[in-house]
Design goal:
The chain is built from 22 helices and 13 strands. The chain is an alpha+beta fold. Among the domains are: about 150 residues, Tetratricopeptide repeat domain (Serine Threonine Protein Phosphatase 5, Tetratricopeptide repeat); about 230 residues, 4-Layer Sandwich (Phosphatase 2c, domain 1). The strands form three sheets. Strands 2, 3, 4, 5, 8 and 9 form a six-stranded antiparallel sheet that branches. It has a five-stranded antiparallel sheet with strand order 1-13-10-6-7, with helices on both faces. It has a two-stranded antiparallel sheet with strand order 11-12. β11 and β12 form a beta hairpin. α3 runs antiparallel to α4, α4 packs antiparallel against α5 and α15 runs antiparallel to α17. The chain is globular, with a radius of gyration of 34 Å. The two termini are about 30 Å apart. About 5% of the residues have low confidence.
Length: about 675
């Protein structure tokens, strides 16, 4: 299948100094006194050279280049740097920063008369929206890019973007649109004799037929794709095509041909290090051997598959750890940039002082002459004063002893205070390190937002901890074709609240996944019992607990079930707002268990239903002219004003309104706000 390509907006520079310099040589040049234009070109070369091998280093130099390009007002270089910074963040898996930079590129390109660059920028934005699950946005930008490419007849670019659209429509379960784009790609590639495009387009058509049940057609097109690969070539595309052909034969129960092509795929995959193809091929062979009752061979093949699967999983895990380390490295580099900027400012100040030193020395000479004249006059006056001073000296000498004693005592107190200050600073540093580490742990426990966004039409989360780690948390799982989602507000905030979130998250997983409970009200009742047992409520009279809203969404039957404990649900559908209140008790706490019984509220889902849940932190925030709480009434008015906007823009409006209301006040509590459009 054709790979989606991110385009670098970068060209080799004609300056002889930079022709084919290695990275080390370019870095050494930065230490010399060079012109701004030459320094900017070096930053761009380093960003380009390091974007795939060392993205964190690339980002460091890219940020320096971006600052310099804006300083000298070089718009063309600014666009290059923004685009390639986005690609460097893409290499780190940071799609949010990637999208931010690509959108900045798009805004700048719209003001320039360069349609080819504009089409590439739109294609890049489409790819990132595809990665983060915003498929509707991805379609829009791919189509806008396609219109521009068609206007100047860029056949290769047209084919690439059409292929992206076809793959996207496959993901969106729109087969007719997908196959239409794949066929158009094939016609364009064949007309322009684009060999790579020809076999990729044929392969895409074959995959389409394999996925939608016409396996004979799949084999026909995939075999044509394999024949279109030039003889003697061996690369990932060819390996993937062979594996697809084997899977198609296996789907037809043609075990002999399937085994033959799986073995060829394994040989090819070993040569090009295509681990995912190798893994799937061993799995296919295991099924074939099992069918042929060759159980020993089936077991060996399955063990190979399992080992590769575990290896790929570990690589993904290590990649995530590496990303965290690189993000930390980037933050350190940004601090270095600030230090370098400060040093540059100091150097400029020193030059200015040297420039003025001559003026100063001239003025100093005149001043000394005036001082000499004044000093002579004062000498005469001073002799008269000395007689009076001698009379005072005796009094001063008597006071000196007392002053010295007081000074010694003050210095002793000062040393004691300094020791205490150093001890406090050391303790504070250790505590902050622990809190930041706790933040990483809490983030690892929370579900992946990108995964949540893929199951809803639109989704946003406004998550603002008061003290680095939060007492609020969100929880998500899918089971039996239903979506379970919860938002909870635990007692307290900071480290104590975070402890509660870890415990409550674990208890929810245990009840819903391990105990296989699907009824929302029963889930909350079991959670209440588990929290009371965990915190030994009766023995130490703890009031620790949590408020929670739990949703079960059945998209197939258009049904929503809500159960809440001191947390409400707000629903907007068919031009009407409804508030569904949770039961007036908290999970855990002083209230007797017999008086705490959660209830289910069933809601029919209409087209374009919007759902909102939030913790008390938003409405309890103090601010405004009279230093009052924001309150639910003001929130409902705000939601009614923004209800027709896309959810991501609603999130921005909610956050902006909160910041303006809060002003210079401290944040009152942890804040969590969730919006879902179905």
């Amino acid at each position: 299948m054709r790979v989606k390509i991110l385009f670098f907006l970068f060209f080799i520079f004609s300056i002889p100094l930079l022709g084919n310099q290695k990275t080390d040589s370019l870095q050494n040049l930065l230490n010399k006194d060079i012109e701004d234009s030459t320094r900017l070109n070096i930053y761009k070369n380093l960003l380009y050279n390091l974007s795939t091998s060392e993205p964190s280093q690339a980002i460091f130099y890219g940020q320096l280049g971006l600052e310099l390009s804006r300083k000298i007002e070089d718009d063309y270089s600014e666009i290059q740097l923004l685009n390639n910074l986005g690609i460097a963040y893409y290499g780190l898996g940071d799609y949010e920063n990637t999208l931010d930079y690509f959108l900045l590129v798009l805004d700048l390109e719209k003001d320039l008369d360069n349609p080819q660059s504009l089409s590439r920028a739109m294609n890049n934005v489409g790819i990132i929206y595809d990665e983060i699950g915003r498929l509707d946005k991805s379609v829009y930008y791919y189509k806008e890019s396609l219109k521009i490419k068609e206007s100047f007849q860029d056949s290769s670019g047209i084919s690439n973007t059409m292929s992206n659209l076809g793959l996207l429509y496959m993901k969106m379960k729109k087969p007719e649109k997908a196959i239409n784009y794949f066929r158009q790609c094939y016609k364009i590639d064949k007309k322009s004799n684009n060999v790579v495009g020809i076999y990729n387009s044929l392969h895409n058509i074959g995959i389409f037929h394999k996925d939608y049940g016409t396996t004979d057609s799949a084999i026909y097109y995939i075999e044509k794709a394999l024949l279109a690969v030039p003889k003697g070539e061996n690369h990932y595309d060819k390996t993937y095509i062979i594996k697809s052909l084997a899977e198609s034969y296996l789907a037809l129960s043609n075990y002999r041909n399937a085994q033959n092509y799986f073995e060829k795929a394994i040989q090819s995959a070993n040569e090009v290090q295509a681990l995912d193809v190798l893994k799937d091929s061993y799995k296919g062979l295991s099924e074939i051997y099992e069918h042929n009752r060759q159980f020993e061979k089936s077991l060996i093949a399955y063990k190979n598959y399992k080992a590769l699967n575990d290896s790929i999983f570990n690589q993904d895990f290590n990649s995530k750890v590496s990303q965290l380390e690189k993000n930390f490295e980037i933050e350190s580099k940004e601090k270095e940039i600030q230090i370098l900027t400060n040093k540059a400012e100091i150097t400029n100040l020193q030059l200015a002082r040297r420039k003025n030193s001559n003026y100063f020395l001239t003025g100093l000479g005149i001043l000394l002459a005036i001082v000499a004249f004044i000093s002579y006059n004062r000498y005469i006056i001073k002799n008269k004063s000395n007689r009076l001073l001698k009379q005072k000296n005796e009094e001063i000498n008597l006071q000196k002893s007392e002053i010295k004693d007081n000074r010694d005592e003050i210095e002793a107190q000062r040393d004691s205070i300094l020791e205490q200050k150093l001890a406090l600073e050391e303790a504070s540093s250790e505590i902050m390190k622990s809190i930041l580490y706790a933040q990483h742990i809490q983030q690892a426990i929370l579900p992946d937002l990108n995964q949540i966004k893929t199951v809803f039409h639109e989704f946003f989360l406004l998550y603002l901890p008061k003290s680095i780690v939060s007492g609020d948390f969100y929880w998500f799982t899918m089971k039996d074709g239903k979506i379970f989602f919860a938002l909870a507000d635990c007692t307290g905030h900071g480290i104590p609240g975070a402890f509660m979130t870890v415990m409550a998250n674990d208890l929810l997983n245990s009840i819903v996944i391990q105990q296989d409970e699907n009824d929302c009200a029963k889930i909350l009742n079991l959670l209440d019992e588990a929290v009371l047992n965990s915190l030994q409520y009766k023995e130490n009279s703890s009031n620790d607990g949590l408020d929670i809203a739990l949703l079960c969404i059945d998209l197939k039957n258009h049904q929503l079930t809500f159960s809440g404990a001191s947390m409400d649900l707000l629903v907007y559908q068919q031009n009407d707002w409804k508030t569904f209140k949770g039961e007036r008790f908290s999970i855990g706490g002083f209230k007797e268990p017999d008086l705490k019984q959660a209830k289910n509220i069933n809601i029919d889902l209409k087209e374009d239903t919007q759902i909102y849940i939030h913790s008390d932190g938003y409405v309890d925030q103090f601010g405004g002219k009279d230093d009052k709480k924001f309150m639910r009434k003001r929130l409902k008015i705000l939601l009614d004003e923004i209800k027709l906007l896309p959810l991501e823009k609603q999130k921005n409006k909610l956050e902006k309104a909160l910041i303006e209301w809060k002003g210079d006040q401290q944040q009152t509590d942890d804040i969590s706000f969730v919006g879902i459009r179905i």
